[in-house]
Design a protein that fits this description.
The chain is α+β, with helices and mostly antiparallel strands and 92 residues long. The protein is built from two helices and four strands; from the N terminus they run H-H-E-E-E-E. A hairpin with a 5-residue loop joins strand 2 and strand 3. The chain is rod-shaped. The structure holds zinc ion.
Length: 92
């Protein structure tokens, strides 16, 4: 189930939440099964990737969020940093 509708949650927080609620009528074995299911759920690669691309004003913007590349205060040149300072995308 990948795509825009996917919601990332903290699996460890979910387990603690379930334990705190002590779901009524739940047997220890049932809880163990739930914990196993959560532990077995796939993890998601959170490294966002993007690239610096020219916009209509001949500036460079992040392909992921549109953040403009920073400009070197001394040389006035656009800096193609390895990461976007706004969204954190790793630039390729
Ligand atoms: Zn960005």
């Amino acid at each position: 189930m990948k795509g825009a509708s996917m919601r990332l949650i903290d699996a460890d927080a979910l387990i603690i939440n379930l334990m705190d609620r002590g779901i009524e009528g739940l047997q220890t074995d049932d809880f163990y099964e739930i914990q196993q299911a959560v532990d077995d759920a796939p993890t998601v690669d959170l490294v966002r990737r993007g690239k610096w691309q020219p916009d209509s004003d001949n500036c460079l913007v992040c392909s992921e969020c549109g953040n403009p590349a920073e400009i070197n205060g001394i040389t006035g040149e656009l800096m193609e940093s390895p990461y976007c300072s706004e969204c954190g995308a790793k630039m390729e």
